[in-house]
Amino acid sequence: MKKAVTVLTAIILVLISSAVSFAVSAEEVMKKSQAAFLYQGKDFKARVMMRLISKGGQERIREMTMLRKNFGEIGGDQKYFMYFFQPADVKDMTFMVYKYHGKDADRWLFVPAISMVRRIAAKDKHSSFVGSDFTYEDVSGRNLQEDAHSIVKEEKADGKDCYVVKSAPKAADMEYSYKMSWIDKTTFLPLKEEYYDKKGELYKVFTAMEIKDVKGFPTITKRSMKNLQSSHTTEVSYSKTDYNIGIDDSLFSERFLKQPPKKWIE
Amino acid sequence: MNKPFHKRHCEAFAPTPASYSETREFRLNPAQVCVYFFLLFVSVFCLPSSSYAVDVSIHGFFQGNYSLGTRSNPDDGDFKWAEERVQLKLDVNKEPFHLFLKTDAFYDNIDRKADMELREGYADYTSGKWDLRLGRQVITWGVGDLIFINDVFPKDYEAFFSGRPLEYLKKGVDGIKIGIYPDIASVEVIAIPIFEPNNYPDSKRFYMFDPMPNVTNREEKDPASNFENTEFALRAYRDIAGFDASIYLYRGFYRKPYMIPDNINNTTKITYHYPKLSVYGASLQGRALDGVLSFEAGHYDSRQDRAGTDYTAPNSQTKALIGYQKQLREDFTIGLQYYTEYMHDYSEYKKNQPSGLPKDKKLYQLSTLRLTQLLFHQTLRLSFFAFYSPSDRDYLLNPEIKYNFSDHVWAAIGGLIFGGGEKWSQFGQLAKNDNVYLQLRYEF
């Protein structure tokens, strides 16, 4: 009898612990999330409107067309092409990124006023994207192997069942000590992300404000990043969003950086 | 001033001519501008617009630009530059064609005159594997930061030394550019039938070295516009192991004037000319050492003085630079460059250079430092740029603060400080021209 109780207790413990360790691993969740968030389709296009809103309410606009093409598998290489419409002092500028798995990206900027293409030395992790609250990494993704991921809990966010994943950078060179992500169990899109600083205090919040289905791909078409310390917010909305439009490899070249084809940027 | 016998042709920064002070700018008279606009509108409206959309956009800016010297100018004026300017950029698109016009109208408060200039004006045709650009266009080649080896196209150094926005350092060329894009490499070929020299500071506004200040009879001889004098430039580029690799060829002329005295022992007249030049060069740029690494080199073949014996034309030179830029922390970037020029046939140069005139060194060296800090969501930019020549021991320092008040309005305040070296060296001769400048722009 005593033996039976011990066995039963052990079985219950195993059941409980397996429930706590969840059906999928945190790495799998983040990998699926990366695929849904940043690698959907063979290629992607959107007209991106960024509103940079200061504490005092002053707004600055960054408007661009963003084109992205995947090369290789999920989490692998990608190329980005961006054309700026606004503000006026950067109009007609173009920006190209070759993103690689496991090493820093190559970046080129075309400055039309002097007809010059030049490489930009910038680090993904520590660079604000066009002065917004998003970093380059927030825009084009982070290498998942650079963080230790764990599923902390499951709960609803925006009425949807989510995995809540804690991702802590393995290296100490990041601005944040860890990030909590609410990943939708159905679409695997991040609905919310919270960034905690070195003191463990929440200081930056990402929110998916609108999700639309585009060609069968659930897509975050409105998002925001709010810095709680500076009270500066960036709101981003996508329009003319499309997938699998057949972007040619040759678009990602100096030739078209200097003369962006209308059919792709409009 | 002039450094007529000063053979260095550091395209980095070569202040020159001054006593030859006629400003050479792309200025069009209002009638010419009207003709341009008329032709443009005719071409726009002649396009079959019913079924094909023609996309027209107009942008531009209003700008005030003032530069105050720390001491009075040679002509007793206080300002190196003082103007209000409006720029209109007109884009007309109907693929595969594209028309672009960039026209400035300005009022010069120093000379009290209004004028217009066509900065750029060209038509593009784009096909699958090639394209063409015809008209006035700005071309920028090479990987240097304010150091130009294979960028053989005209510059306006007066604009740079007067604290004008950087885009005014580049002048357009009137010519045709053809781009060809086979899989193996991309190629740009340029033909320029009309010669355009560099523009140097005005001797009324800038103090510069002149070895013959008493000779007032001076004239300039441009290369005649004929087929033989048409300049050709070619650049072929591709990726090599993650590096952007380019080769460059150029056949044309030096854009800096060199002097020919009528009689070296008793000069009564000086003629300026632009000696024949060919350039063969290459560059590499890529990600390395946690930053961006750049190399560029070029051989300047002075076709009029291959033996190095003619003191009225420069000797051939080999030029090279290495550059490195790195982001040290968020929104803070550092850029370093080292540049050198080696003069060929130096013994001939020394032997033939008339006595009493400054002599260049066999090896010229120049280094640069650029620091850029962006703040407040990249709306405030603090920058510092310095040239220092280890061989001539002269320098140019350029601190600047730029703030974007809104998406439409920005202002920049900066300083240009020259000094060191000799009274004829590149930056040393400008020692009395320190100035503080303001650029204020509304863009739309």
Structure description:
The complex is a heterodimer of chains A (266) and B (444). Chain A is of the alpha+beta class and 266 residues long. Chain A has a single domain, classed as Lipoprotein localisation LolA/LolB/LppX (outer membrane lipoprotein receptor (LolB), chain A, Clam), CATH 2.50.20. Chain A is built from five helices and 13 strands. Chain A has helices at residues 2-20, 26-38, 136-140, 254-258, 262-265; strands at 43-53, 59-71, 77-86, 94-100, 103-111, 116-119, 147-157, 160-169, 178-184, 190-196, 202-214, 217-227, 232-243. In chain A, strands 6-5-4-3-2-1-13-12-11-10-9-8-7 form a 13-stranded antiparallel beta sheet. The longest helix of chain A has 19 residues, at 2-20. The radius of gyration of chain A is 21 Å and the shape is globular. Chain B is mainly beta. Chain B is 7% helix and 49% strand. Chain B contains three helices and 21 strands. The radius of gyration of chain B is 22 Å and the shape is globular. The two termini of chain B are 40 Å apart.
Secondary-structure map:
The complex is a heterodimer of chains A (266) and B (444).
Chain A: H1 2-20, H2 26-38, E1 43-53, E2 59-71, E3 77-86, E4 94-100, E5 103-111, E6 116-119, H3 136-140, E7 147-157, E8 160-169, E9 178-184, E10 190-196, E11 202-214, E12 217-227, E13 232-243, H4 254-258, H5 262-265
Antiparallel strand pairs in A: 1-2, 1-13, 2-3, 3-4, 4-5, 5-6, 7-8, 8-9, 9-10, 10-11, 11-12, 12-13
Chain B: H1 30-46, E1 55-69, E2 79-94, E3 97-108, E4 113-126, E5 130-137, H2 157-161, E6 173-180, E7 186-192, E8 217-221, E9 231-240, E10 243-253, E11 258-261, E12 269-273, E13 276-288, E14 291-302, E15 317-329, E16 332-343, H3 346-352, E17 363-375, E18 380-388, E19 394-404, E20 409-420, E21 435-443
Parallel strand pairs in B: 8-12
Antiparallel strand pairs in B: 1-2, 1-21, 2-3, 3-4, 4-5, 5-6, 6-7, 7-9, 9-10, 10-13, 11-12, 13-14, 14-15, 15-16, 16-17, 17-18, 18-19, 19-20, 20-21
